UniProtKB/TrEMBL annotation:
Domain Prephenate dehydratase: 85-260
Top EC category: lyase
Pathway the protein takes part in: Metabolic intermediate biosynthesis; prephenate biosynthesis; prephenate from chorismate: step 1/1; Amino-acid biosynthesis; L-phenylalanine biosynthesis; phenylpyruvate from prephenate: step 1/1
Native organism taxonomy: Bacteria, Bacillati, Actinomycetota, Rubrobacteria, Rubrobacterales
UniProt KW Iron keyword: no
UniProt xrefs under InterPro entries: ACT-like_dom_sf (IPR045865), ACT_dom (IPR002912), Chor_mutase/pphenate_deHydtase (IPR008242), Chorismate_II_sf (IPR036263), CM_dom_sf (IPR036979), CM_II_prokaryot (IPR002701), Preph_deHydtase (IPR001086), Preph_deHydtase_CS (IPR018528)
GO molecular function: chorismate mutase activity; prephenate dehydratase activity
Protein encoded by which gene: pheA
EC numbers, comma separated: 4.2.1.51
Protein name stated in the entry: Bifunctional chorismate mutase/prephenate dehydratase
Length: 361
């Protein structure tokens, strides 16, 4: 045993030396980026690093563990290149907080904001480098506040995160028998509704502004519990009495990363646009034919009131490819022929949808 532990100590020392060497290289890259006015966060480069790491990992160390380790290595390296502030829809210990940590790691400065509009405003004013906000849920649909902000903002989508939503029951109590009240955000209560009715039929259900606020309330009240993330349990010192209590096992939320520019191509990308089409019979069909003619996979389309004139609408669309791809260029040119308004609001590395069909983003 001691000999094996000595071997681990020697490997750990080598890992630390290599991390120091990587840090020196990252610092020099930061100097070059600063001189050229380049951003510290480059999603396309991160995609390539992660893919290469997974390809190299053919030994006993789990690939998921490699990704988690390198997520933090990259986060620390970015912090050496330049101070990075990321605004997210708060408060702390919410699922958006968890998504921001997954995207940027623990070494950047994460700053919670009260509303989606506040996140956009912080990034637009240059008070934060990036923002993270939810854009859609697999069970509840689009987050309309985010779509509305995207319509009028100069910011661009430069990344996406898919987060499986695992709701837990959190409490100071040691068992379900002591629970007489359950707090959560209305969506959390709805997502865990069947479980709550079955396991806690006599408990009062109380709405809170967020799952984090619900956890805070539960931490201060005897006989109370909250529905939320395990991250909130750690933050407020609560016990996790039950996990995966949401009704749908495939429940996931998609979050977007906001920046001033979209990401470069990686070979597996997604592009987002917003447009309105000419008001004539078959207008939407004609607009969407631009994608079919170029063989481009349309991932999602969503309509919203234009907020410019009553009973007029704009459409948000996500599709496979990058604006630098020749086929995408042709599709956008054809789309423009059939629209009265067209804006490219983002391009970013595509992430596979948890629980989605094969080939889905």
């Amino acid at each position: 045993m001691e000999g094996l532990r000595d071997g681990i100590d020697a490997v750990d020392a080598q890992i630390v030396r290599l991390l120091d060497e990587r840090a020196r290289l990252a610092h020099r890259i930061g100097e070059v980026k600063l001189a050229k006015g380049l951003p510290a966060y480059v999603p396309s480069r991160e995609r390539k690093v992660m893919e290469r790491v997974v390809e190299l990992g053919e030994g006993d160390f789990p690939k998921a563990g490699l990704e988690a380790v390198f997520r933090e290595i990259i986060s620390a390296s970015i912090s050496l290149e330049a101070p990075l502030k990321v605004a997210y829809l708060g408060p702390e210990s919410t699922f958006t907080h968890e998504a921001a940590r997954r995207a940027f790691g623990a070494s950047v400065e994460l700053e919670p904001e009260a509303t989606v509009a506040d996140v956009f405003a912080r990034v637009e004013r240059g008070e934060a480098n990036h923002g993270v906000v939810p854009v859609e849920n697999s069970m509840e649909g689009a987050v309309t506040h985010t779509l509305d902000e995207l319509m009028g903002s100069p910011l661009r989508i430069c990344g996406e995160i898919y987060l499986p939503i695992s709701q837990s029951l959190l409490s100071r109590e040691g068992s379900l028998e002591g629970i007489s009240k359950v707090y959560s955000h209305p969506m959390g209560l709805a997502q865990a509704g069947s479980w709550l009715r079955r396991e806690l039929p006599h408990a009062a259900l109380e709405e809170a502004e967020s799952t984090a606020e619900a956890a805070r309330l539960a931490s201060e009240e005897r006989g109370a519990a909250s529905v939320g993330s395990a991250l909130a349990a750690d933050h407020y010192g609560l016990r996790v009495l039950a996990t995966d209590i949401q009704d749908a096992r495939t429940n996931a939320t998609r979050f977007i990363v906001l920046g001033r520019t979209w990401a470069g191509p990686t070979g597996r990308d997604k592009t987002s646009v917003v447009f309105s089409f000419k008001n004539r019979p078959g207008g939407l069909r004609d607009a969407l034919s631009a994608f079919a003619e170029e063989g481009i996979d349309l991932r999602r389309i969503e309509s919203r009131p234009s907020r410019r004139r009553a009973w007029t609408y704009v459409f948000f669309a996500d599709f496979a490819g990058h604006p630098e791809d020749e086929g995408v260029r042709r599709a956008l040119a054809k789309l423009e022929e059939h629209t009265t308004y067209l804006t490219l609001i983002g391009a970013y590395p595509e992430v596979r949808t948890p629980g989605g069909p094969e080939g889905a983003s």
